[in-house]
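Quick one: examine the sequence and fold tokens given here and explain what the tokens say about the fold. Here goes:
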Amino acid sequence: MSSISKVAVLLAAYNGENYLSEQLDSILSQKQVEVEVFISLDQSSDGSIDVINEYVKKHKNIKLINFELEFGSAGKNFFHLIKSVDVSGFDFVAFADQDDIWLPEKLSRAASTLIEKGYDAYSSNVLAFWEDGKKKLIHKSSAQAEFDYLFESPGPGCTFLFKVALFKEIQLHIINRYDDIDLLWLHDWFCYSFARFNGYAWKIDSKPTMLYRQHTNNEVGANASFTALFSRFKTVASGDGLNLVLNQAQFIGQDSLKPVGNLHSGRIGFLKLASTFYKYRRKPIDKVFCLILFLLLAVKGFKRKAY
């Protein structure tokens, strides 16, 4: 990059006193970018507020924007951040969890990719790690499918970087529809779906530039075992997963899309989805799961839960 880019980092925290220092230090150590961190602390019962206040005192580029509101989930906390932070004057916006470790080139690599390749947003593979020293690459960079954004995220939100123009469009949509925010589940999936649906170009990088901490609160993030996959399959087959898909589609305004229409069209609709199963997920194994799921629902049927 020929000049230093300014990045607004939105960090959602909750009971994170054991991890916040390491996370914040890794953000402050980013190379070739200028960062400003905005923290929203979901109402916590540990010493997170003390850790954050110490960083706020020492660093002018760290700001605490909330510590009293109770959100109940990281997703809701991030939606509050998206709605609340003024990103005027920044070139890019990033999301951060409270417990990961960013490698020094994380933001500069993402920013260079967006500037040089003309993409509007960026995400990447991550290297998951456990306290016992185990590490595992979490692969998210399979080729994008036509409608994958209706059913999955392009990786953890903590890998995301947005050009500010796209972020402002996301922000405006959230502000205008905030009364319906309970329709949404995950902030990262929503942002990807909104961007792709509205024609923005998204890069999923194969190179991991952060360590993605695994513990009891986020074990699902790196769990790709058959048992975990089967558990997720059961969740979707029960209808809960498809309700999330339809709720998000309603929030974004995607009801005119053929796959969304087919989800509303009973058994015939699921047969149509099965005939185009390869359009809805990126990984080959997930495409096969889609085929099996749609065929199953064509037999058993599906009734959407009222919002």
Remarks:
- The longest helix spans residues 284-300.
- The first strand starts at residue 5 and ends at 13.
- The mean pLDDT is 93.
- The chain has two domains: 5-222, 226-300.
